[in-house]
């Protein structure tokens, strides 16, 4: 079968020697929506970065859309990552430049880029801030710009790391709808149950390991308690 992501016995140790992820085996289908939940420090963000090839595992192997991590440029064209902290992502002089950065790299036409600006400015309410430097935006505005900047090139896989953290109710609703309706593979790390519930598959992490892999309805309170989530 042609999987979106395959992880074989992957582990990751931080520079200080502490273990972030331990011996994870995982296969994610194309088009699947997967939530990774766990308490702070459980390893879910680290797993997101490993599965998206932003981090190289200390042990084991990750394959993304048929490409190994040695083919990182091919992976970059097909994968988008939304970071928990938008300041780790935003770097262009203005919001307009941020939205058009990848389309320009991909050689899109002026007509295509004009359409992108109209579509995503309307969807996320960015029209009035297109001229502003991202560092001058509020936290919620930065999050919207970050998500829009990833969505503009329609990646085959989108990885979200705590996408609804520190956003207003309207943005939260938009993000949840995007996760639900996105025509591609979605993998989201979250500690919020209403976000996890959108996904048909849920992975529960504790101390760097996946301790449950099921659909949301099959997860009982005992597992959530073991994971430190209730």
Task: Give structural notes.
It is a single chain. 38% of the residues are buried. α3 packs across α4 (110-124). This protein has a six-stranded mixed sheet, with helices on both faces. It has eight helices and ten strands. The model has no long low-confidence stretch (mean pLDDT 92). A hairpin with a 2-residue loop joins β9 and β10. The radius of gyration is 18 Å and the shape is globular. It has 230 residues and is of the alpha/beta class.
Give a topology summary.
Layout: E1 3-13, E2 19-29, E3 33-37, H1 44-51, E4 59-64, E5 67-68, H2 72-78, E6 79-82, H3 95-105, H4 110-124, H5 139-151, E7 157-161, H6 169-181, E8 185-190, H7 193-196, E9 201-206, E10 209-214, H8 221-226
Parallel strand pairs: 3-8, 3-9, 6-7, 7-8
Antiparallel strand pairs: 1-2, 1-4, 4-5, 9-10
Helix pairs in contact: 3-4, 3-5
Total beta strand runs: 10
Summarize model confidence as the mean pLDDT.
92
Quote the beta fraction: 25-35%
Overall form:
globular
Strand order of the largest sheet: 6-7-8-3-9-10
- Quaternary class: single chain
Structural class: alpha/beta
Number of helices: 8
Biggest sheet overview: 6 strands, mixed
| N-to-C order of helices and strands | EEEHEEHEHHHEHEHEEH
Provide the helix percentage. Answer: 25-40%
How many angstroms does the end-to-end distance come to? 36 Å
Radius of gyration: 18 Å
Uncertain spans? none
